Amino acid sequence: MRPSEGVVADKFLLTVFRLNDELFAQATGQGAFAIFPFAPNEFFAKVAGISMSFTRDPNGLVNGLVLHQNGNREAPKLSVSEDSGESASGAAMIEVIF
Fold it and tell me: What does pTM read for this prediction?
């Protein structure tokens, strides 16, 4: 996954990142939580009734996500880093702003 950003609503950042072989999500001002796949491009969390669907462009690259919590909130990608997407800690991430 390459770093990217997207907007759905005002100033609520959701970061999805890989650490070793696991995926996590972290919202603005909140702790990180694990997310688990249940179908292609579909993930759920064991907290707060959260699930999300990654959206892809015609080339198969992730171009945003839909957060399913108290409704559906779409978050298109804003930008992509020019590097490999790997941070110093070994985590790759996608960021979307709600």
Answer: 0.70
Which residue, chain included where needed, has tokens 């999300």?
A: 52
The CATH number for 60's domain is 2.40.128.50
96 in a domain, yes or no? Answer: no
d(CA 93, CA 54): 13
Asked if residue 12 is part of any domain, the answer here is yes
Q: Report pLDDT digits (tens) over 16-37.
A: 888 888 999 888 888 999 999 9
The number of domains in the chain is 1
Residue 92 resides in a domain: no
Strand boundaries in the chain, DSSP class E? 4-5, 13-19, 22-27, 33-39, 42-45, 51-56, 62-68, 72-76, 79-80, 92-97
Q: How far is residue 55 from each of residues 9, 42, 52, 65, measured CA to CA in Å?
A: 17, 9, 10, 5
